[in-house]
């Protein structure tokens, strides 16, 4: 039962030149920025004084921008019209391996948004939506067959603008599977049979409801919808806006909540999610780690206006900032932790529990808690009250009061909540928490662990040699200075 490992979500993914191919509908996102100070005398509408215009890649292009921000090497296959918008898109794809087919008579997608005082006022579109020609589909297939082996993962970014026809989509998936390359799909439409054989699917709640004909309003209906999607792909996901991302793993519903603090604009958040998951899977991360990374990335981009991206540095800083809540808010009493645990369990969080006196915090304590946290999502620490420590250690202990010890422990990144208990053992507290994993020191090998009849699993962690509160006190007392 001894284990030491690094918590998988402690570090943001490393920047690396993963090779990812994006196939789908390219668009140009055009923004007209200004301010509004009056209403038109001609009609009851706002008058926006436009001061500047900007353009960026949209649709599948936003997926590409997200991947580039992570440091990936990206390729693209798509179809555009023979127009000025297509020319702008190609310029914005600088640094991307382009396999773009021009189809005469087709209107390249352009979405124009008017922004006044950081608020989107209106959007108007110019585009073709009909399926691309049979000749264009054949050209895409030919290009894909010639380059597919160069990439780690393929993303199909379907915006329903006609590039990913049912026939072409099935052809691409079969070619990728024959080359043992995963295909991730951001889907559109009501018939997902065109995506059969893909590895992963990322519809949002509304899209999933349309495709499965299941009204998602609780965990049972969410599970039902995911079960319906399992006949299409290996891993179906459903993005749930502020409620995060849900998936089934071995038949069990898992929901990872979002981590966004402020939401200014959700434009392109789905593109960020699929790009983040693809980048994670390309680095051989498991799906749960990939989803947590995607939630962090999405939390960054929804705090920006327009189709935004998130760099690895931004995500790392954002992840750190999420832990900057007041230290006192992580110290709970029995009643408070009961409510916290109910909320955490409703989110399918894996709860880890450990306990101790932790008097004069030292390296051994920190290393022990870091390893303990690696066994789950949330670490709850039971802290012996001063009266309890005196009964266990003698009247000269503790050196530090329970309030001071709790404050210092709650400030550690590995500790989520601290609960002080007066009893000799934490059995009452463990009964409230009902942890998934109960952790004790390696010195409990062969001994009965209090609460082992409640927890689902017990793990023992070895202490760091030579590090203990008793040795620290002895050293202080023997000092002649």
Write structural notes for this entry:
- With 481 residues, this protein is of the alpha/beta class.
- The protein is built from 15 helices and 19 strands.
- A 9-stranded mixed sheet has the order 5-4-1-8-9-10-11-12-13, sandwiched between helices. The chain has a 6-stranded parallel sheet with strand order 14-17-16-15-18-19, sandwiched between helices. Strands 3-2-6-7 form a 4-stranded mixed sheet.
- Helix 2 links the parallel strand 4 and strand 5.
- The longest helix has 15 residues, at 287-301.
- Mean pLDDT is 88; it is low at 1-11.
Number of strands: 19
Task: Report the end-to-end length measured between terminal Cα atoms.
Answer: 43 Å
CATH topology heading of the largest domain? UDP-N-acetylmuramoyl-L-alanine:D-glutamate ligase
- Proportion of residues in extended strands: 25-35%
Q: What is the approximate shape? A: elongated
Radius of gyration: 27 Å
Across the major sheet, the strand order is: 5-4-1-8-9-10-11-12-13
What average pLDDT do the residues reach? 88
* CATH homolog superfamily of the largest domain: Ribokinase
* Share of residues in helices: 25-40%
Number of helical segments?
15
Low-confidence stretches: 1-11
Structural class: alpha/beta
The biggest sheet amounts to:
9 strands, mixed
- CATH class assignment of the largest domain: Alpha Beta
